[in-house]
Amino acid sequence: MSPTPxxxxxxxxxxxxxxxxxxxxxxxxxxLFGIEGNSLRVALARMLAAGVVExxxxxxxxxxxxxxxxxxxxxxxxxxxxxxxxxxGGWVGVHGAEDVAANGTRRRGExxxxxxxxxxxSPGLAIRPDNLAGGLDATRAAxxxxxxxxxxxxxxxxxxxxxxxxxxxxxxxxxxxxxxxRASRATLEKSAKRLPRLAAPDAMRESFLLGGAALRQLALxxxxxxxxxxxxxxEALAAEMARYDRLGRAAWxxxxxxxxxxxxxxxxxxxxxxxxTTLAAAGGNT
Length: 286
Description:
With about 290 residues, the chain is an alpha+beta fold. About 50% of the residues lie in helices and about 10% in strands.
């Protein structure tokens, strides 16, 4: 899937080790994906107004504070295992996320729930296994940081009846999750073999798009406990992505250096931000 002007800007600005990126670099990068300069500038203006990006006195752009929570959460794709703990059979529940439609925060709440792997068990009640690191307090804080309304109740459920317990464990399509993780790993393996032989613009595009697709999957993986979904396919994709990342860095290094930009990560390393802002159309922005 080709990036939108907004997601391209987020991805590139999020690669910066320090400083900002000149608009001409963003325009030139956008051209690689068939995005016109005017469309890129319109997206920048909207993002600037929303606080998603900031502009310094030289007219260069950097990530804004409005993108901070999502950026901080998704940047740790290499350490997904550290976000989990042993599951004791409990569930985290969220009730009341649908009661805030009137004040315009419902979509942000839905986005937060989806991003942290919650699924609807019954009308008004979304759940996930209570296996995220930090337990209830950390999960609650992450949900609110990602946009869940403070009025929503976040709590732990235990001792579901056998029928409800069985239904809860089936809320995630584990077979599809495993199949798509496996397919993404195979795609990266094939691309890694040909990437060093491609011309620079082609290597930049391919590493950005394929790496981005894989990272969207890692970002949206519900991080289920092994009692529900074995971790082997997710771990294999993350390991392959770490290897592919080195090729992505090399593909983009010359371009970024030509604009005096110091990358902390490859240009596809933060495509998860795009997932957070567009998943299931819940983010509402393009």
